[in-house]
Amino acid sequence: MSSENPGFSTMAVHAGAAPDPTTGARATPIYQTTSFAFRDADHAAALFGLQEFGNIYTRIMNPTQAVLEERVAALEGGTAALATASGHAAQLLIFHTLMRPGDNFIAANRLYGGSINQFGHAFKSFDWQVRWADAFNPSSFEALIDERTRAIFIESLANPAGTFTDIAAIAAVAQKHGIPLIVDNTMATPYLVRPLEHGADIVVHSLTKFMGGHGNSMGGIIVDGGAFDWSKSGNYPMLSEPRPEYAGIVLHQTFGNFAFAIACRVLGLRDFGPSISPFNAFMIQTGIETLPLRMQRHCDNALAVAEWLKKHEKVAWVSYSGLSDDPNNGLQQRYSPKGAGAVFTFGVKGGYEAGKKLVETLKLFSHLANIGDTRSLVIHPASTTHRQLSEEQQIAAGAGPDVIRLSVGIEDVKDIIADLDQALAGV
Ligand SMILES: Cc1ncc(COP(=O)(O)O)c(C=O)c1O
Predict the structure, then answer these.
(1) Distance 256 CA to ligand 1 centre (A)
(2) Which of 84, 184, 208, 216 to mutate to test ligand 1, by most ligand atoms within 8 A of the CB atom?
(3) Is-contact 135 318, C-beta < 8 A?
(4) Among 303, 335, 322, 85, which residue's Cα sits nearest to residue 212?
């Protein structure tokens, strides 16, 4: 990129990429190889000892993945990134780097159901304890902090409710206690919200959603904000103590403001192995090239659909932060003035049965468990994505029994509304 300060759309197309030095290929090639030949034995030793950066084996690093990582780091304003096989894999690697058995972390109660499940059940096997705070009440996070608290986790824009979180207020709590704030930015994407600018320390994504954007490839990514002092408290030994497997290197000392991304790669990805395939990395980086165009269209369509639903006689309520009378509209205006995202919920009069019928009658909308596709998608979270939660947890997560979740696509908005109209007529 020739500009010193490229704009978001320029970075979405160019960051991390250049014509292939060997062939001149302009699109980033898919380096579909497991391993990379060493120049000589000294080169191999330097790579394995972390004295030199370079490709060894695709489980740890690959040139197609590297372009994706550099691009997302640039879009989020971070120092480095690590791509993974899925969003959940990224979360596992983050917590593996931060937590020791018996440690705890605090998470907002308004999260994707799979994350509530991962934190509340799967992480118990590692003896990592989650404590749930009220996403709308920053002081509820502070009340849960003790000497074994190692992180705070929130979603910038919560799935499925589509509500914005006060990142700066929660970042202030985290900073006061010397704890990193992790923000899942999947639903907003950096086009709408850049959490690092509001005090977050680590950003995580499911790239499977709006970033890839076409519903065809799984991926996740961890972005290192570069500002957290991993050595100060002694609470993050993976970063602040010598690593026996790398001849006593202290990762924070050696790698400075991108030590967290390195630790996730060389201690987490290397040993647990959830690497993204080069093909998926290629698909997702191609999707990211049109992120600004798609996201704006998603937001514009979603606002028009929400306004239309709000006036419909068979609709009980609509919860979309972009509506001027929505209780979350103030946070949306503050954190995401370009739009309120494409995922929101509403209730049909007639509750559970009417909602089920609506989902079954829609034709343009696909009934499935995903968000952030070019296509319009619909689901009933209580019987699917949030099924494993108690009714109390479902309601707290914005996924109660009467809730329908839409992920509004980029089709012509008149066709999206026509589909909802015919389906509501049959309810
Ligand atoms: C907000 C959010 N975070 C994380 C995930 C998990 O991502 P993945 O399915 O790529 O593992 C999802 C998946 O729906 C999500 O919506």
Answers:
(1) 29
(2) 208
(3) no
(4) 85
Kindly list the domain boundaries of the chain, sorted by start residue.
8-287, 291-425
For the stretch 140-152, pLDDT in tens is 999 999 999 999 9
Q: Is the peptide bond before 160 cis (omega within 30 degrees of 0)?
A: yes
Distance from chain centroid for Cα 207: 7
Residue 22 contacts by C-beta under 8 Å, 6 or more apart in sequence? none
CATH fold of 8-287 reads Aspartate Aminotransferase; domain 2 (3.40.640)
User: Which residue from 391, 383, 390, 349 is spatially nearest to 367, judged by alpha carbons?
Assistant: 383
Atom of ligand 1 nearest to the CA of 187: 1
Ligand 1 neighbour 114 (Cβ under 6 A)? yes
Mutation test of ligand 1: which of 91, 109, 157, 159 has the most ligand atoms closer than 8 Å to its C-beta?
159
Condensed to tens digits (0 to 9), the pLDDT of residues 8-40 reads: 999 999 999 999 999 999 999 999 999 999 999
Q: 292 C-alpha to center of ligand 1: Å?
A: 20
pLDDT at 48 over 80: yes
Best residue among 68, 206, 370 to mutate for probing ligand 1, ranked by most atoms within 8 Å of CB: 206
What topology is assigned to 291-425 in CATH?
A: Aspartate Aminotransferase, domain 1 (3.90.1150)
Decide if pLDDT at 300 tops 80.
yes
pLDDT at 75 over 70: yes
Q: How far apart are CA 87 and CA 209, in angstroms?
A: 10
Q: Which residues contact 27 (CB under 8 A, 6 or more apart)?
A: 286
